[in-house]
Each structure stands twice: as C-alpha cells, then as structure tokens.
Design brief:
Largest sheet: 5 strands, mixed
Protein name: DUF3016 domain-containing protein
Organism: Shewanella sairae
Number of strands: 7
Helix content: 25-40%
Number of domains: 1
Keywords: Signal
Distance between the termini: 71 Å
Oligomer: single chain
InterPro entries: DUF3016 (IPR021557)
Strand order of the largest sheet: 1-2-3-6-7
Structural class: alpha+beta
Number of helices: 3
Strand content: 25-35%
Pfam family, one: DUF3016
Radius of gyration: 19 Å
Length: 174
C-alpha cells in the first residue's frame, strides 16, 4: 500500500514539474537593433539542456544568441538600420548524452560530427523599408578547427556561425 501511495505521489509531482516547464510557443527576443522570433522551438533539431529546465535553457540560449548577434550587427549596420530574423530550426554544436546514473545531469559531447546548424529568414530594415531579405540554412562542418580552442564562452560555435554569416553575407550587400 505504501508503494502505491508513493508511486501516486511521484506521478502527481512529476506532472506539476512538467506544467512548470511550459514554454512560450514562439518566443521573441530583442536586443538593441536585433529582433529574433524563435518559431516553434519544440520542433528544433537540438536545443536540449544537459541539466537545466527546458524553458530556462531555451530562454537563456535565445537571449545569449540575440545579444551576440546585436553586438556583431551593431558593427555592420548603420544606426537607423535593424535586423529581424525568424529562426525555424536550431541545432546546437554537440549532442546531449545520458550519464547513466553517474550524475543527475546529462552531458553535451562536442565532436566534429555534431556541427552547429541554424535555419532562418531575415530582413534588414532601414526605417520601415526592407533593404535586404533572404533565407539561410547555415552549417559549419569545420567548427572544431576554425575557432580558438581557448574560447570557453557559451554558444561559441553558434555565435561564430552567425558572425561569419553577417560578415560574408550581410555586410557586402550594404
């Protein structure tokens, strides 16, 4: 009887934890001159946390990527210009693997067979006028070899991918 009672209690508790981890359907992050809509994050290829609530991890990831994109776009765009993205897929570098009881958290294994990928549409606005628009599907197959190994910043591979895209695609069109 005690086992059944404990089982019922754990089921109720797990349901309340899942309810507390609800995610906004299409979150939007804004930082300076950059606005990003993250379209249906539940369908993204890989945005799994290794040991954090899904909603917190997603929010932190989206905020960090938007912040970095704003920093880089501020160097390229003119003061009256803005960059808007609609991200339809995100695959963080690496792959989350279970630790099989060694710890309570899983680990993200970063190997060259798990490159960062991001798919989005974008537009650069000058006031209300669209001056550049397009669709992108970015992947960096050489991400392990093209970045400073001493860089330990979060999302360094994804940030490098977005920075490279801005410099190679957007900047020449301006």
């Amino acid at each position: 009887m005690k086992v059944q009672l404990m089982l019922a209690a754990s089921i109720l508790l797990s349901g309340s934890v899942l309810a507390a981890d609800e995610v906004t359907e299409n979150p939007v992050t804004e930082n300076g001159i950059v606005k990003v809509e993250w379209q249906d994050p539940s369908s993204f290829r890989d945005i799994r946390s290794s040991g954090e609530m899904k909603s917190r991890f997603e929010n932190r990831t989206f905020e960090q990527l938007t912040k970095h994109l704003n920093k880089e776009a501020s160097r390229i765009l003119k003061p009256e210009q803005k960059l808007e993205l609609v991200v339809t897929d995100l695959d963080l570098a690496g792959d989350v693997r279970p630790t099989f009881g060694a710890t309570t958290n899983d680990i993200r294994v970063v190997k060259d067979i798990y490159p960062p990928r991001i798919t989005f549409s974008y537009k650069v606005l000058d006031g209300d006028k669209v001056i550049i628009a397009g669709d992108e599907k970015l992947t960096d197959m050489g991400f392990m070899y093209s970045i400073n190994k001493m860089n330990d910043k979060p999302y360094r591979y994804e940030n490098a991918l977005l920075s490279s895209w801005l410099k190679k695609t957007v900047e020449p069109k301006l």
